[in-house]
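Teaching note: in complex prediction, the entire set of molecules is handled at once rather than each chain in isolation. The prompt given to students was simply: 'Predict the structure of this complex.' The entities are:
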Amino acid sequence: MYAFVRFLEDNVCYALPVSRVRDFSPTSQQDFDNQKVYTVYRNPEEAADEDDESPGEWGDRLLLHKAQILALAANLLPGAEQKVVFITARVHPGETPSSFVCQGIIDFLVSHHPIAKVLRDHVVFKIAPMLNPDGVYLGNYRCSLMGFDLNRHWANPSPWAHPTLHGVKELIIDMYNNPKINLEFYIDIHAHSTMMNGFMYGNIFEDEERFQRQAIFPKLLCQNAEDFSYSSTSFNRDAVKAGTGRRFLGGLLNDTSSCYTLEVSFYSYILGGTASAVPYTEEAYMKLGRNVARTFLDYYRLNSLVEGPLAPTPKTWKDKVPHYKCPAQRGPGNSHAGGKPDKRSQAHLKEPSLPTR
Ligand SMILES: [Zn+2]
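The expected output is the structure of the full assembly:
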């Protein structure tokens, strides 16, 4: 069993075996207290050294870390192939909405929601929420401390000039080379300064089946998220985007992998069937993140595993969520997979059933 823990010293979340949480022996997935502070070992060596340390003390090496448990997940079946979804955000430091979307994804995945529990038991999510921390710290709009647009250096990142990018790329390549891991999704979250709604960029492949398969996730997301536009979603291989994560990893990973840039407007979204723009709020960005996470339940056809009826959207929700159509007619329009409008995206859709926070 794995515990999703948040370390208090740096407010960073990890998924670790529960054996690293001292004095914690859950008998079920409900059996934890997310208010209590536990001692958690960050790595196996720390646990092995425990007898040499004074319990509860913060030594010079910070061997005993304080953390809260947010959620639990079952072990994947022995020998089962790990399905991995890798998500990154904030490679462009000025695109603050991407952090709220990413926060929505993380909060949902570690929540008590029945969908989140099923997802935790079947899919491994690896998330790097801030790819350009020095740029964020300095208040840069697009570049790192050294003036690089990191999203143009995926092809050959330097450990000295682009250390965060280099580290994440190494991790992704390690996973790609591990036969027990199937890296099925890479999603890089950005914010867009001229377009409306949320939408995606994907890759173009010669293999028609692969090309068409890439359209599935954004179509499903369009059904779950009122602000996500499949019409604005496009697929390209522009030379100017060659160094981006989505383009580079789309060329590197095998044909079962899908790589996307998820864009969300800095400003507003237009609900299908209306002409008025709804300004985005921080909460609306996080809701998009929650809907991104829940869409993996549909993609992997895990719906039958969700226990009990799904909770309706709480009435505390500030935004009115009427029955809606997917937003349409606000994008490049001629570069969709298959080249045709998606009929399902025009249909009336039910409200998303996600909690608010
Ligand atoms: Zn960007």
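Point out the following to students. The CA atoms of residues 192 and 265 lie 5 Å apart. The two ends are 26 Å apart (CA to CA).
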